[in-house]
Amino acid sequence: MSERAQAICAATVTGALVGAAMVSTRAVSSDVSAETLAFLRYAIGAAVLAAPMLRRWSVRFTAKDFCAVAGLGILQFAMLILLLNYALARLPAATCALVFSTLPLVTLCLAIATGRERFSWPRLIGAGVAVSGIALLLQPSAAVAGGAADSWAWAALLGATIIGAACSLLYRPYLRRYPSMYVSVVAMIVSVLFLAGVCLVRNAPLLPSLSGFQWANVMFIGLSSAVGYFCLLWALSRLEASRVMSFQALAPITAVLIELLIGSYPLSWRLTGAFILVLAGVWFGTHERRPTAPESAASPAAGPPNPFRSAD
Fold first, then answer.
1. Where do the domains of the chain lie?
2. Does this model's pTM top 0.85?
3. Where is the composition biased (Pro residues) (predicted)?
4. Which parts of 202-286 fold into alpha helices (H)?
5. Cα R_g (the chain), whole angstroms
């Protein structure tokens, strides 16, 4: 399998895990504060990522790069997830995933505006087709959940989406200098410390009293965050940010399929039509022929980068 195909698979895994984690978050959000859930999510994720790394740590970050990666970690893990958890406590998981499905469009617009990527009709059309499929599926629930009482929840979702798009672009320079695994560990550990401070300030418990089923959901959220975030950074180091984020369109499809299996959604033509449109949009937006190899790809002579290698 080529490195590009591996990156596409990693982005696909990330999109699916985001949708699955949203359903689990929705299942426990009424019994756990947004701050506590965010702390537990990334404390578990950081433990999973850091465990095999601490004994073999061989990368030295410059002070400037360390602060930058730490800041991105706080934005993506602390601020984004606090906003997302706030929205998930007030809106359906599928509706939240609908807003997140605009990540490819937001990312592409930011990338073009900052000169990081060239304008691409195939990617724009592909993202639009995918979003239209999700809108087709979730339009009734979105209309119900979009009342005035949820205006702050919608604002939180919009803010989380913009942060996610911006971070996907800002990580790129550091992923060129350092292996993805090390960037993941630094960003996540710093965010856990920040979230612990937020919990203490807001008197939110670090270890809440939950049932076995609820702890199972929390553990799944943490594990999916660890795997999904590493896959995201690994894909971002090899593909353009807008291509990688296009796979976030799979999140609402995953959320709806899971809620369909547990009886929250009936099987309908909307689900079938949305599934086809989303897959078509993702395929169309990620199969554009490029005249040259992506600048982030490794040199053929050097072979694929090792996520555990030491940086020069």
1. 3-118+149-265
2. no
3. 302-312
4. 212-236, 241-245, 250-261, 269-286
5. 19
